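Rotation project, supervised by the postdoc (A.L.). Task for the rotation student: set up a whole-complex structure prediction and record inputs and outputs verbatim in this book. Inputs entered:
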Amino acid sequence: MHTRLSSTTANATDTGRRQADGGGKYLTFALGVEEYGLPVLKVREIIKAMDITHVPQMPSHVRGVINLRGRVIPVIDLRLKFGFEARENTDHTCIIVVDVTHLGMIGVVVDSVSEVLNVSGDDIDQAPDFGDQVTTDYILGLAKVKNSVKILLDLDRVLGGEGPVLAEGH
Amino acid sequence: MRDRSDRGRADRALDRIQTAMDEGMPLDAVRGALLDLASSIDGGSDLAPVADRMAFLASTVTAVNAADVIDSLRSLVAEDGDVPEPLHLVDAANVATTLVEPVLAEAAAEPVVYDDVAAYAADQELGAMFVIESLDHLATIEATILQLEAAPDDVKLLNDVFRPFHTVKGNAGVLGLNSIQEVAHKFETLLDLVRQGQHPMGPSEVDVVLRSVDLLTLMIRELPARAAGQVGTDVSQRRAGLLDMVSRIIDGAKEPELSEPAAFAPASPALGSAAGKSDRRDDGQSTVKVNTRKLDALLDMVGELVIAQSILSEDPMLVKSRDERLNDRLGQLKRITSELQRSAMAMRMVPIRQTFQKMARLVRDLSRQSDKPITLVLSGEETELDRKVVEHLTDPLMHMIRNCIDHGIEHAQKRAAAGKPITAELRLSASHQAGNIVVTVTDDGAGLNTEKIRAVAVERGLIAEDAGLSSDAIHQLIFQAGFSTADRVTQISGRGVGMDVVRRNVEALRGRIDIHTAPGRGTTFTIRLPLTLAIVDGLVLRVGGERFVIPTFAVRESLRPLPDQLHTLQGRQRMVRVREKLIPLLHVGEAFRIHGACRQIVNATVVIIEDADRPLALVVDELVGKYEVVIKSLGDAFGHVRGVAGGAILGDGRIGLILDAGGLLALSAETDAVGTAA
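Outputs recorded:
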């Protein structure tokens, strides 16, 4: 079923240039065989994988902290967050530093970063409903680009839940 | 038979309009319909003579008179009815006024409700600025009025109190914050009278000004929260009462509850003259307001620059190179960076003056409440501290002052009997000493009663009856939670809560607090704090591939234990014996689940740390070295990780977690508990 993205998506105003139908620029990256996209305005920078200082008592997908030009940034392993198996870093492994509403800068470890794509609203489908078992509210939509499908992520939803987890003990 | 005359038609039309109105037709429509009716009367009709009047009446329709208008129209239209006297416009106006007046009067009788919250919400950006600036002004008013109390004729001080009220009143008016504006205006009026010599500046006036500062501070501070929907404090009674009080003062009525008993010397603290002078000298300094986040970002960058520069200068290639020019340039870079760092650190420093001035107000209030005349002498208010330190110093200082006034300083009669001046002296001072900030609180009261403290401590089971403690150690007992030698618990102190908080706050700032007392002569509390919280002197430890930092002041010693020094409890190595003392062990690698940590304690290093006199032995792989490291908070995202107090940026730019002795002790107690339960 071909449905336009509703114009009332949660962070349409956050991402400014994203149009009401979801079209706009997305940074695409890979986790294993799947390709994802992040609204480009949420991306602060991309850095090569670096030593992450482990912080104890955190869930496994919270890898620790890094020093980003004097600021301490928490780093999350997106593979583990999505329930995939952990994998060794490769030459392509990167940390994407993103700006999450209410939480500030957070780094996410991804397998590789591809490119910035300009996706038109026409090419975005709503995520299909998998029933009650799987919540897909963190997916902005599925973008059809050339012959592949990129899963567009709503970062605030993916990582927004980290707030309570990271603040364990408060 | 249907009356087809114009009158008949008009009458029926009026019927229809009346019915429609009764059924809820809006007034505009009623008016419109009546006007249409009036204008539909053509020149040859019977009704022509009254058409104008009909139109006029129709146009006067309002909520209160619509029914009457229709009745009047009916009279005009009625075939054999008397045509009423032409309605003079003047009469109509009177009618309208008579009808409208009661409505207006009713509205006027309702109390005017100012909606400051709505006004604030209408322009939050301006509102936020108003809040910041006004709170600043109120602090100035408070500080200045206290000075004015000691020197009521000082014209400059009078102006310094008048002006902020004037400014706050003006700004509040611009924003539509009418409740606030009203109060500020009232006080501006009072102070203007004083300024012009038409009213004295006495204790009642000072009191009422202080009350206004309290009230306005409360009202202004609550604005943002209330605009966000939270319920604020209901100050309507307090406000009305205060405005009333000022009115009566202006009118010259005596305020019974504010006047002092004749025999009593005024208990206002005279700020030391040194303080007064330096305050005024400061007026010339120009400052800028900078958003603290911008400042922090700048300081972070400078910190990074220092690290980048040091990595560069330690680069093996550069160290090997004998190129003089290159070395010179590197040296230059290093000098500039150091200077930049010093400037950046200096930006974080603020004078302790404002904190001390808050104390002035407290001393004045407490002095009155407890009926003890006290002079507060300040020195060293220009001493600068890291602004975070200053923020956290306020509470401990307040507690200590409360304590001094409540327990230390004797009542007037007792002082007289002891040959002391009736007015007690409380001194607050701040200075730099050997890389530390030293803040002292001194009173010339009765001093600590060592014997009494000891007795209470024994009674509470804090120490053994025969424990041979030095006087100093006994005095330190007053910092224990729940300790109090007060015979009565007053509103001020005596609950045994204050001094415990004081020590904890001071230790949280990585400081120390010492007591020096002489019976009958007085007591001095001395707080020593590090100059800045941003850098800590730390011992860097390695556990597996991770590095940790423990602040040097928490470290007692380190050793490589021999097997016979290790003792087990229930099969697990739990303790190490050092010079006949058994100290609990915490294996950091285990507690933090670090891969590759050294497992065999005999091959590892043990570092003995201490938190509030409780020792803990940490098992780590090795000591890396002693360094000064820049402390970074891990951020809100990490909330509270037990045993970890933050992150330190190490010399190579990587992060080492800073260990927190207290947290580690808690962690070790927990793992022990888990172990024993298993």
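Student's summary: Chain B touches chain A at residues 300-301, 303-304, 546, 591-594, 632-644, 647, 649, 653-657 (CB under 8 Å).
Supervisor addendum: Confidence is low (pLDDT under 50) at residues 83-90, 254-284, 491-496, 674-678 of chain B.
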